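ligand=guanine
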Amino acid sequence: MELIDGNVIAASIIAELKTAVSALAGRKPCIALVRVGEDPASISYVRKKEKTAADIGLESRIILPPVSIAQTDLEKLIDDLNADPAVDGILVQSPLPKHLDERTIFRRIAPEKDVDGFHPLNLGKIAQEDPTGFVACTPAGIMELLARSGVDLAGKHVVVLGRSLIVGKPAALLALQKKAGANATVTICHSGTRDLPTLTRQADVLIAAIGRAEFVTADMVKPGAVVIDVGINRVADASKKTGYRLTGDVHFSSVAPLTEKITPVPGGVGPMTVAMLMQNTVKAFHQRSRATR
Ligand code: GUN
């Protein structure tokens, strides 16, 4: 069994981006980070994105509307960022307060600045295998982890557990693409799948993204499989100072010894997402410079 170390792989991507950005003459790529309200997890995520952008040499703009902002005012704010030539990427941190319609807000972001890859046009571009699209940071991170760990998906059976718009569906579409590193046979399983263990046991590569703590047990995994654990779940643990521990969608201690390679939680897919966001921002910058030249 080999651990796929997301911290190490993310650090090398960030170092590569830093080199590429330092070689740019003139204006640097700029990401606008919009956080509405004071959700503690959102504060820490946005801070991490801001810090990583600074490390790479990207510009960032932090926009902190009050929790009471009206839908129309947030839409206006996005329209202004869409129209601002100095802004390459726009990220609206999720979750938004309940009175705001997140789906409408995400669709308001100009697709060419949608570095989160949440806009329907960008999801559609994955299906069309159009490389100008933006892939959401988690599925992009999964593909990058596999590629940089030497896992070639060609001809393999990839089983994706979970059908979310942000992880399961795009991850399945990416693995299915007819190109180097992909070209897999793909099965998507979900909460309504009958006889799940029979399907997951067929996986050469199992991507667990169902959001249920330690759901994948040893009887569900083929010996020698590669397992990517996308889950981040809190489970009560009285022995921890915080009262909880973080765990994935995979029961790590029983599954890991069976696998060829596996991602830990934390330290697997998680660290990759910020690196992918930065990569998307640099890509948006280049595509926008080409378009306006
Ligand atoms: N909240 C948790 N993950 C994400 C993400 O990838 N993008 C945004 N915008 N919000 C999030």
